[in-house]
Each structure stands twice: as structure tokens, then as C-alpha cells.
Amino acid sequence: MSIPRKNTPRKEKSAGDAGTDCHGRQGRPRNDGGGGLTAPLRGAAGFTADELAELARADAEIDDEEIFLTPEERALSRALDRQAAAARLEKKRAREAAARARETPEHRAHRLEKERIYREAHREALRAKNARYNAAHRQERRDYQKAYDAAHREGINARRRGKYAAERAAETRKEANYGREK
To answer: What global pTM score does this model have?
Structure first.
């Protein structure tokens, strides 16, 4: 290993010397101070000049071709994109669930205590944030509820009839037992 000397003039490299070591080999100098070369010189994004030229040729071919997708191919592409996004989301949710399952009771108590302290300290800001959200989404929620009620009208009415029938039956039992001690 050679140690560079101070105030020693460096040899200027000519254009033909670029990227070669003292033996004429292609590569880049090692940064460990030991001299020698580690790998062929690479240009942008770690590609050699030949690889860059090949990429440029492939890009030119792609640019020259007009790519047309049929509606079925476009629908399939969108469906695959949605599946991939859902899989990423499912993995994230599964990872979070696994982390919650690994959580010890002591850590959970500590985390809940920290959350409680935060909520107490920021009560007004959180209340204001919730009020802004509710005001911004009030009409959206009303529209959703109207659509739900219209779609489930029969089931809602049946539950109401059952609820009122049960209340009437309870009233009748109370009236029948009025004055009797148990």
C-alpha cells in the first residue's frame, strides 16, 4: 500500500487514459487506498456505455411503436393494478395485526396511557378537528344514510314493527300485572 506524499504533482491524464489504471486495464479506482481497480467503469445509473446504448435503442423502438390496448386488456390491466394495491394493503394490515398480537400487556398499558395523556393535553384541538371534519362531511353522510335507508327499507320497517310489537307486549304485561306484588 502506498501512501500519497504531500505536494507531489499529479500526472495529468490524457483522454485515452480515462478509466484505465497504470497497466491499461478498464475500471474505477478503489477507494480503500490500495490502488487497483474494482469493476468496469459505469456511466449513468451504474450502466456501462454498451448497456446505455442498448437501452437507448430499446427506448427508440418503444417510442416508434404505437401501443394500443383493447378495452379488455385495459380492464385486465386495471384489475391487476387493483389486486396489487389490495395485496400491499392486506400485507400492511396483516403486519400491523401481528405487531398488535405481539404487544405485551405492559406495553399496551403504557401505550394507552400515553394516548390518554395526549388526548387530555390536546382535547380542544382534537374536538375542533372533529367538528371541522363532521361539518365538511355532513351532507355526504346524509346522502349515504338516505341511500342506505332506501335500499334497506323493508328490513328497517320489519325491525321497527318488531320493536314496537315487543314494546306493546311489555306494556300489556305491565297493565295485566298492575297492582300485583311479586
So the answer is: 0.34
